[in-house]
Structure formats: C-alpha cells, structure tokens
From TrEMBL:
Residues 150-244 form the Acyl-CoA oxidase/dehydrogenase middle domain. The keyword Oxidoreductase applies. Residues 261-408 form the Acyl-CoA dehydrogenase/oxidase C-terminal domain. SUPFAM superfamilies: Acyl-CoA dehydrogenase C-terminal domain-like, Acyl-CoA dehydrogenase NM domain-like. CDD domains: ACAD (cd00567). InterPro entries: Acyl-CoA_dehydrogenase (IPR050741), Acyl-CoA_DH_CS (IPR006089), Acyl-CoA_Oxase/DH_mid-dom (IPR006091), Acyl-CoA_Oxase/DH_mid-dom_sf (IPR046373), AcylCo_DH-like_C (IPR036250), AcylCo_DH/oxidase_C (IPR009075), AcylCoA_DH/ox_N_sf (IPR037069), AcylCoA_DH/oxidase_NM_dom_sf (IPR009100). Keywords: FAD, Flavoprotein, Oxidoreductase. Belongs to the acyl-CoA dehydrogenase family. The keyword Flavoprotein applies. This is Medium-chain specific acyl-CoA dehydrogenase, mitochondrial. The lineage of its organism: Bacteria, Bacillati, Actinomycetota, Actinomycetes, Pseudonocardiales. It comes from the Bacteria. It comes from Pseudonocardia xishanensis.
Length: 413
C-alpha cells in the first residue's frame, strides 16, 4: 500500500525544490560553460572515445572536473548517508533530482549528469556497508569525486538470473581470492574500485537463499583486467565493459556487508537503479515533448501549421498523458520506498511503465519532426537510444513482468 501524503512530505518537496534550484544553478554556471568550451569532444565520435572504445582522456578529465567541483559545492554526495559525510537524502529526492536534470538538459550530453553521484559507479548507500578499514583506505577521494567505482554483478550467463553467477571467492588464510568473469559492467573501463559479487557458499547459492558476497576490489589489483569495452549500437565506443578476475587477492576487510548476504546489497542497488531510470525516462520524455510541441507550433505545410493536423497533435497529447501517468506513478513509488524502506513490487511496475513510455514518446516525437527527427542535430536519436537501452538495463521488462505477475497471482493488488 502506498504511503499517505503528509505535511512532512509536502515540506520535503518544498526543500527539494530549493535543492533543485541550487543544483541547476550550479550546472548552468559551471558545467554548461565547461561543456561549451569543449564542444568538439562531444560528438560521440573518435574524439569522444579512445582507441580502446572507452572515454578519451580529455573526456575523462572533464568528468573529473565536474565531479570534484560538484563535491566541493555539496551536490555530488547528496545521496550518501549522513554518517559518512553525505547529504543523506532519500528516494523522493533521488527521483526528483534525476527527473529534473534529464528534463532540463536532455539527451546526448554527459557532463551535467556527472554533477550527482550515480548509484552504480559513485558513492551511494552501499558505502554504509564498507568496513571501517576500507572506509579509511578509499572513502575520502571517493566522496570528493576523484575516484569512481563499478557495480560488478552481471555475467555472460548470469544477467537476469543473478543466482546463476559463476564468479567464486575462496578463503586463503586471512585473504579472499576471486576468480571469474563479469559483463555489461557500467563505468568499468574508468573505475578505480569494483564492487564484485561472488559465490562464497555453493550450497546456499544453489538453494537460492544466500551464499553470494560482495567485495570491494581495487581495479589495479594483480589479476584484475578490463578485457574489452562493449560498444552499443550506433556508437563508436561505450561505457560498459567485460571484466576478468584471475586469482585476485583481497584482504578480509574488503568484504562489503555480511558474509553470504551480498544479494541483499545487490537488490538495494538495483532498486535504486530502477528508480533512477524512472526519473531519467520521465525527464527525457518531458524534454522530447517540449521540443516537439515547439516544432509543430512553427512548422507549416500546405499553408497550415502541422499542429492543426490531428495526426500530429493527437500523438503529442498521448505523450502528455503517458508522461503524467509515469511521473505520478514514480513519485508515489518513491514516497512508498522512503516511508517503508522496501517497494520491490512498486519499483518493478514503475520501471516497466516509465521505460516503455519513454520509448513511445521518442517514437512519436521523432515522427512529427519528419526527417529532421532523425538527425544528430536535434538530439532526439540519443533519447530514443537511451530509452531503448534502459528497457533492458537493471532488469528487463520481461523479467519484471514475471515478478509482477507472481505477486498478482499470489493475491497482491
């Protein structure tokens, strides 16, 4: 059941508006000018990517500048627990922040979105589960935006079915030794640290009741390698990679959270990712609809504004209806998660709806632009590209529908 709207919730939203105003002022005054001065890098071509397929060194340097300046301004770590030096903000703010950023700055850009730590490769609530010694070793530069991480869970044969993972961690004296392969790991080509999930108890894993643990691994460790960068369709490179771990040795304090209970940490991260993607998709869809609305109001054919043709205007009305529905759905989901601490069913439904909604909005908005909708200049292609990708990332629509159906058949509304 959704959490009720309360006076406290209304006050939180007012505070969020103040925060959003400060954040967008920072991006407008610091990040956008930086982006403009280096516009030649951001054509998604050879200057954007290195020969390896990863981000080029100049792009990495600009991302580093944005992270560090945002951390100094107090925005980068807003979702990190307060006891670790972050803002301690919750799901309601997380959704609102990402929705606002994507709605304001749109697709085919990366620098504005480096202003806030991303759950899968920057400081997040996972930091709360680090050992005291690990915090002392890595947390300060991590919170400052100087270093980044990756969330190494997916494998070639263990994507949607994480229990099928084959990466193993075995005890060797006081250390752990990790061996295995990870795939589709975002930010792995650039990361300084990897949250690596591995099987630590085969019997528990086989019974699907535990036996998976998480370890924080420096990517400079002997035996750790980025074997290749995965280039997604339409791009010369990518931000995801394939990792191999060959007898990678880490100390006992590298364990993140409780032994054999890493799957709980993974669910925490993935839930955050699904809510993030809801905000991303609602924001991107809102941006696209504004572009389309402005275009059809000006574009004329046969002496008439194309906005006056129902074949053009009605699809945009459908976009508005679906964006409103997705936004309302995601806000309620975020509120429920903040109030109860768990909303797997609601997050699954929200992720399915908002990602598919975003794809539909981009299809319509590209269509009403005609041939111009297919050009790089209008940036619509990149929004469509992102929407298509996130229908698979952090749980495909098919897997989530299976989970939703099980709840429904089990009697849940």
């Amino acid at each position: 059941m959704a959490a009720p709207v309360t006076a406290r919730h209304s006050a939180v939203l007012a505070d969020v508006e103040d925060l959003l105003g400060g954040l967008t002022d920072f991006v407008d005054s610091v990040v956008v000018p930086l982006e403009a001065r280096h516009a030649e890098l951001f054509d998604q071509g050879r200057r954007f990517y290195a020969e390896s397929g990863a981000y080029s060194d100049p792009v990495r340097e600009l991302l580093l500048q944005v992270r560090e300046r945002s951390a100094a301004a107090g925005y980068y770590t807003m979702f990190v627990p307060e006891e670790l030096g972050g803002g301690g903000l919750g799901p309601v703010t997380l959704y609102e922040v990402w929705r606002r950023l994507y709605s304001r700055y749109g697709p085919a850009r990366i620098l504005p979105f480096a202003s806030v730590a991303h759950w899968s490769y920057a400081p997040s609530s996972l930091c709360r589960h680090l050992s005291a010694r690990t915090r002392d070793e890595m947390l300060e530069p991590y919170l400052a935006g100087t270093t980044t991480s990756c969330f190494a869970m997916s494998e070639p044969d263990a994507g949607s079915d994480a229990w099928a993972m084959t990466t193993r961690a075995r005890r060797d004296g006081e250390d752990w030794v990790l061996t295995g392969t990870k795939q589709w790991i975002t930010n792995s080509p650039e990361a300084d640290w990897a949250f690596v999930f591995a099987v630590t108890d085969e019997e528990q894993r086989a019974a699907r009741r535990g036996g998976i643990s998480c370890f924080l691994v420096p990517t400079s460790a002997p035996g750790f390698a980025v074997d290749s960068v995965i280039a997604l369709f339409g791009q010369a490179g990518g931000h995801e990679g394939i990792l191999s771990l060959t007898d990678v040795r880490v100390p006992a304090h590298a364990l993140v959270g409780a032994l054999h209970q890493g799957f709980d940490l993974a669910l925490e991260g993935v839930s955050t990712g699904r809510l993030y993607n809801a905000g991303r998709c609602v924001g991107l869809a809102d941006w696209a609809l504004r572009q389309a609305g402005a275009y059809v109001a000006e574009r004329r054919t046969f002496g008439t504004r194309i906005a006056d043709y129902q074949g053009v205007s009605f699809p945009l009305a459908d976009c508005a209806v679906e964006i409103y529905a997705g936004d309302a759905m995601a806000r309620e989901c975020a509120r429920t998660l903040e109030a109860t601490g768990a909303a797997h069913h609601e997050i699954a439904m929200t992720k399915v709806y908002t990602t598919e909604m975003c794809s539909r909005v981009y299809e319509r908005c590209m269509q009403v632009h005609g041939g111009m909708g297919l050009t790089n200049e209008l940036r619509l292609y990149d929004g469509w590209h992102q929407a298509r990708i996130v229908r698979i990332a952090d749980g495909s629509a098919e897997i989530l529908r299976r989970n939703i159906a099980r709840k429904v058949i089990g009697g849940r509304r």
